[in-house]
């Protein structure tokens, strides 16, 4: 008998909320999507805009684009229950074919349950986007998604940032040829970020990703001018976008 024992429950996913909105970051900005936000994260960034989602809750709301509750999902949730929630959200509000897995950090969820969720969403015809802090390179090849949106964490982004940005670069190296679209977001939060950014951008450029996004942090310690951001983009051969968090500028309550 296996270590889990006969009759034990298969792994489930800690979900915080399921909602429909538009993508607010990166090259797909403005695309109507649905989002599964998981609870739990292995990091604690100074600029985290979803600190509540680091903690679990027993029931996750399913929300339309105005934030109106259409139903709930018990958490931890079975993967098929989450697929049902996305399908019924799609029937209710329509307009999306991409499902973003976000958090928190999706890759801290039980991998077998996450793999099953991704497989079933793709079988239903959805395109799956993984939004990750890219801190777990050993898990990079364990999930088969269509799109990866990877943050590139820097030492000054928070406590417990040993090994960054190297871990994120290794993660990107592992996924870059496995997916339809792979992009990196370099969040510029403080003066230290700007000091290290030229070196990090040179290394990201060498990975030949689809897009590199320079993202000034909302409410960061430093408010850079466009000239300073432009200066960082000079000399980068990859596609570059200079993009703040557009959903916040627009006043949309979520992504
Ligand atoms: S990785 Fe993302 S969710 Fe986790 S603390 Fe940092 S910003 Fe928040």
Question: What's the CATH H-level superfamily name?
Answer: Aldolase class I
Shape: globular
Q: Order of strands across the widest beta sheet?
A: 4-3-1-2-5-6-7-8-9-10
**Count of folded domains:** 1
Q: Spell the H/E element sequence.
A: EEEEHEHEEHEHEHEH
CATH architecture: Alpha-Beta Barrel
User: What is the terminal separation in angstroms?
Assistant: 44 Å
What is the strand tally?
10
How would a crystallographer describe the biggest sheet? 10 strands, mixed
The helix fraction, in percent, is 25-40%
Structural category: alpha/beta
CATH topology: TIM Barrel
Radius of gyration: 18 Å
Q: List bound small molecules.
A: iron/sulfur cluster
CATH class: Alpha Beta
Unreliable parts: 1-5
Secondary structure blueprint with pairings:
Blueprint: E1 15-22, E2 32-38, E3 59-63, E4 69-74, H1 79-93, E5 98-102, H2 111-123, E6 127-132, E7 147-152, H3 166-175, E8 181-188, H4 191-206, E9 211-216, H5 226-233, E10 240-242, H6 246-250
Parallel strand pairs: 1-3, 2-5, 5-6, 6-7, 7-8, 8-9, 9-10
Antiparallel strand pairs: 1-2, 3-4
């Amino acid at each position: 008998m296996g270590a889990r024992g006969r009759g034990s429950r298969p792994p489930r996913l800690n979900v915080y909320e399921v909602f429909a909105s538009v993508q607010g970051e990166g090259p797909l900005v403005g695309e109507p999507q649905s989002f599964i936000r998981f609870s739990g994260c292995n990091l604690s960034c100074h600029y985290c805009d979803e600190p509540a989602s680091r903690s679990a809750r027993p029931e996750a709301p399913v929300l339309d684009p105005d934030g109106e509750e259409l139903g709930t999902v018990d958490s931890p949730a079975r993967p098929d229950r989450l697929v049902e929630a996305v399908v019924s959200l799609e029937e209710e509000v329509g307009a999306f074919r991409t499902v973003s897995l976000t958090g928190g950090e999706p890759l801290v969820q039980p991998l077998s349950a996450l793999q099953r969720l991704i497989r079933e969403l793709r079988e239903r015809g959805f395109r799956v986007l993984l939004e990750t802090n890219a801190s777990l390179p050993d898990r990079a090849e364990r999930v088969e998604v269509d799109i990866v949106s990877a943050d590139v964490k820097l030492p000054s982004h928070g406590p417990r940032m040993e090994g960054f940005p190297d871990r994120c670069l290794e993660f990107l190296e592992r996924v870059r040829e496995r997916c339809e679209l792979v992009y990196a977001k370099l969040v510029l939060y403080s003066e230290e970020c700007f000091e290290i950014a030229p070196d990090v951008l040179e290394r990201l450029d060498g990975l030949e990703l689809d897009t590199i996004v320079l993202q000034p942090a909302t409410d960061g310690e430093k408010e850079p001018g466009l000239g300073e951001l432009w200066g960082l983009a000079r000399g980068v051969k990859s596609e570059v976008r200079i993009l703040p968090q557009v959903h916040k500028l627009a006043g949309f309550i979520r992504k």
